[in-house]
Amino acid sequence: MGGSPARRRRIVPALTVLLWAVVLGAVAFWGVRVASELLPSARTAPRYDPPVLAGQSVTGACSGGFYARDDRTVVLTISAHCHQPGVALRDEAGLIGVLGERAQLADCPPTRFCAPSDFLALALAPDRIPWGHLDQVDMGAGGYRTLAPGTEPLACDDIARGGRVEIDGRERYRTGTVLEVGPYRHATDTIFPCMAVADIDVGVGDSGGAVLVDGLPAGVISRELGGRLGFTPLAEGLENLGLTLCTSPDCGLSPGTAEQPTE
Asked: What's the confidence (pLDDT) of residue 166?
């Protein structure tokens, strides 16, 4: 999306996400606890078989983000702080997939961990790939969102204050507005060059969930800032891990060409 008006907007340096963390409250690295739990939102569409996990809860790993591919492997982005690389995720039906490495940056202060975005890739078992629907995100009560062919994931510079935000972590559809965008440098946490804050309440288990801004794939739920949503951008994380966002029903693959993840 180079050259777009959104990309040319300058990130306001005066009020960074670090300041939001200080003003609004402490960071909950494993999620956020809110005063009262929201009830699941009523769905507007049936689930597929296998279900679309993009935007939905994933057993043992918080919430799923977006489908992407690594060569012939179909992956789902998953929160980097909800599980460990190399772990095989399973549920009552068997293997869901195997977690890969976290997105991370080499240019980082000693003893710290730095990342462009807060996710890793879950390489999916073949029977968990929803063929024909890899270009979709299940937003629960917000309906399925189909990414148009060639849709580019948003980068930090594409996310501007005032953008309309949508999430559906834990099957609780919520909307809000981008309040601020800037670097996140909490003293005891991962350093992110970019994080956006939105006026949406989040809770334990939301982490990793898909974030749409103005209807476009924008990022993943990453942190809680005083009860508010903090999300990191999608484009930088995909690029860091060498992944391509799925914007066609089968992501350019077929059941016969997809690779089996190695446990």
From this structure: 98
